[in-house]
Amino acid sequence: MLILTCPCCHVTAEETEFHGGGEAHLKRIGPGGSEEDFERYLFMRENPKGVHLERWRHVYGCGKWFHMARDTATLEVFGSYPAQTLAPPDHILEAIRKRHPDWQWQRAS
């Protein structure tokens, strides 16, 4: 069981109060995008064993989307931050690198 904290309303609760929404920081493809770009957006997602940046929604709370960094192998949560943030905040990157010194964030393109 994950214990998550919503960065929008600051409620800490079990994961059942939230809903996962997949990979964070994806470049959305609009109507003018190519079929290849749209296919890559829909189907080619990261699914690592280890550190992953994800989208979550506080379904039974404020209803807002946010991003979270966690380790998919150990379920360790490194922190959460608002969905409008374009990159993981420095304090979350530091928390990740404390446990995984070689980890590098690759901005989704």
UniProtKB/TrEMBL annotation:
Gene3D superfamilies: Folate-binding superfamily
Pfam families per the UniProt record, alphabetical: SoxD
Protein origin, superkingdom: Bacteria
Gene Ontology biological process terms, A to Z: tetrahydrofolate metabolic process
GO molecular function, one term: sarcosine oxidase activity
Name of this protein: Sarcosine oxidase subunit delta
Natural source organism: Sulfitobacter faviae
